[in-house]
Amino acid sequence: MNTSGERRIRLAVLLSGSGTTLENIFERIERGELGAEVAAVVSSRRDAYGLVRAAKRGVPSEVVPGKKFATVEEFSGRIFDFVRRHRPDLVCLAGFMCLIKVPEDFRW
Questions:
Q1: Which residues 6+ apart lie within 8 Å of 24 measured at CB?
Q2: Using one digit for the tens of pLDDT, what is the confidence trace for 34-50?
Q3: Fewer Cβ in 10 A, N or C end of the chain?
Q4: How many CA atoms lie within 13 A of 53 on its CB side?
Q5: Whole-structure pTM value
């Protein structure tokens, strides 16, 4: 909820690098220009600076390296298992540079 009592959109943000788009989202939220909250962040790379940006704001994050999985389905499954636990309304691909398969419960 925001100060006017309206429910904020819960976002999960997937990224692979510096997290510039994530930072832009955070800044717009902080300025009151975006009625949202970042509920979770997933990175395909352990060294992604976007993870630091998430940690600075106390947002739960997870690293899911694609090379660790034999198939796109396994990789995607691991990502969306983490995302589901944080109950987002919307998943944002913010510079996420890996192929994923979007599960049915996240379509539309």
A1: none
A2: 999 999 999 999 999 99
A3: C
A4: 23
A5: 0.92
